[in-house]
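Recall that a protein's primary structure is simply its ordered list of amino acids. Everything else, from secondary elements to tertiary packing, is in principle encoded there. The following example makes that idea concrete.
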Amino acid sequence: QVQLVESGGGLVQAGGSLRLSCAASGSIFSINAMDWYRQAPGKQRELVAASTSGGSTNYADSVKGRFTISRDNAKNTVYLQMNSLKPEDTAVYYCKWTLGWPGHPELWGQGTLVTVSS
């Protein structure tokens, strides 16, 4: 079964940058949306950035101008470039892919922890 594998999380000081990656463990086709979510301690999971197969992107207001989502369709990989990080960005970050198959199944990564120190 294909799984999503995330990488790039870690500890960074406020104002710093990190780049998250999310790739499939095997071959997969017909990917519609590739999104990034995050969940901070004691809070609900929230959508951070979204991208469609057509190239459209959307961001949560809290990260606009600081985060950039991009995808390499040839490599089946999605990235999240995070700049000007703030302590409130501390969370576990998850990628989610929505497939263009009947029923539009979703795949979730295992999550990668991002900690921003003040």
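The mean pLDDT is 95. The radius of gyration is 14 Å.
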